[in-house]
Amino acid sequence: MDASVDAVTKVNDIYWYGVIVLLVGLGLYFTVWSRFVQIRLLPDMLRSVIERAETLPDGTKGISAFRAFSISASRVGTGNIVGVGIAISMGGPGAVFWMWAMAIIGAATAFVESTLAQVYKVRDRDGFRGGPAYYMQYGLRRRWMGVIFAVVITLTYGFVFNALQTNSIVDAASTSIGFEGSGPAALVGVVVAVLTAAVIFGGVRRISGVTQIVVPLVALAYIVLGLLVVALNLGEVPRMFQLIVENAFGFQEVVGGGFAAAFMHGIRRGLFSNEAGMGSAPNAAATAAVSHPVKQGLVQSLGVYFDTLLVCSVTAFIILLSNPEYGTTAGASLTQNALAAELGGWTVHFLAVAIFFLAFTSVVGNYYYGEANIEFLTGSRGVLQGFRVLVVVCVFAGAVGSLPLVWGLADLFMGVMATVNLIALAPLSGVAFALFTHYTRQRAQGIDPVFHRADLPEVRGVQVWGSVDPKVPAKRLPG
């Protein structure tokens, strides 16, 4: 097992330098080109996330922007709690700074990829589906590239990331209950696998319904406790910021590698947390029934801020207040023990429950990413049913896997996924910015933006967004 961990780690240490060049380079390009869309249009983000869903042509109500956002449940899950603990334990406090930096830059990338997912989405039996595989086929006209991405994301989210979620549940449960050995871990795996099977055979509407209810409640409870810890230690906040910044640039080294360790672990855990540029969130973004593709792009940008600048920061402050030991791999237990030191032992059990729900809803959301891409690859119901069975098997297998190996594989697979997606975003970004110009022009006129494919005939390959009755007047925004 140690040999496998070492091999995966060596590959990641080399390969991830190329991934970071793509992530940072394109993120900065999108930021400058859009004149900081991720900052300037924050009011529009807040407005778009609460809009009601549009009615589909068959008269049914579509999935709202918020419900589509909540499908991407891994935004608020183990990445925010377990991932931050690993980032700090392996990269030191400075890793938090680089998570923040990538969130701000990555919000522009999230805007571009999710806007593209909306414009190139297709109709299915539940409403819409789409994602990078679809904009690679219809936007780039490179189906072979879409096939590669579809295979990679299906393996990454359907199998590797779902195994990681169960692994995190076991880690949290073992700290809470105090069990050891493979027997109890396997029992936890069976429970999660059975629950997963009960949900994923119900379709995307059941998936979004489950995540819409559970994720906000559990996330809110965790955030409230975290903010309480920060409030009780308000005088320590400046010291925490100083520690994070000094360690980020190597001025104060607490782990081997200094700046390099903080930078690398911050970027990796930040990407796992907010998914910006990885190509996963666009699969969820495409399901929304909105009046303009840019609206969902803005919603996904807001999600990056929410999970990294808010939730991850809360977790980081809780951990740093406990003066943790650096240089070792620590996951959920690090956050649990840190929270218990501030608010009492009961929080160890609360956090175990929270991680269970957040990880479980992440499993459900991860499954949907795989489903959307299985349907891109083949329309066979038999293949989809087989995929569902394999997902359940991997959920169980993650319960008895090694923590370092599971996280190492997750890093490797998400790096490959991000590479394929970012290569496609570069030439397609012009389409996203043409839509952005179309959106801002209507906003300047005080009109609630609406898009029809006839508005931008130069954008080819659009499968939906047909024209509506021209006699219907445009809806004007209040104020």
Textual characterization of the structure:
There is one protein chain. This protein has helices spanning 2-33, 37-40, 42-49, 65-71, 78-91, 94-119, 132-138, 143-177, 182-200, 204-232, 237-248, 259-274, 281-285, 293-321, 332-343, 346-377, 381-398, 403-444, and strands at 122-124, 127-129. Helix 1 packs across helix 6, helix 7 (132-138) packs antiparallel against helix 8 and helix 8 (143-177) packs across helix 18 (403-444). It contains 18 helices and 2 strands. Mean pLDDT is 82; it is low at 468-473. It has a two-stranded antiparallel sheet with strand order 1-2. The chain is globular, with a radius of gyration of 21 Å. A hairpin with a 2-residue loop joins strand 1 and strand 2 (127-129). The protein has one domain (2-426): Amino acid/polyamine transporter I, CATH 1.20.1740. The longest helix is centred in the C-terminal third of the chain and has 42 residues, at 403-444. By secondary structure, it is an all-alpha fold.
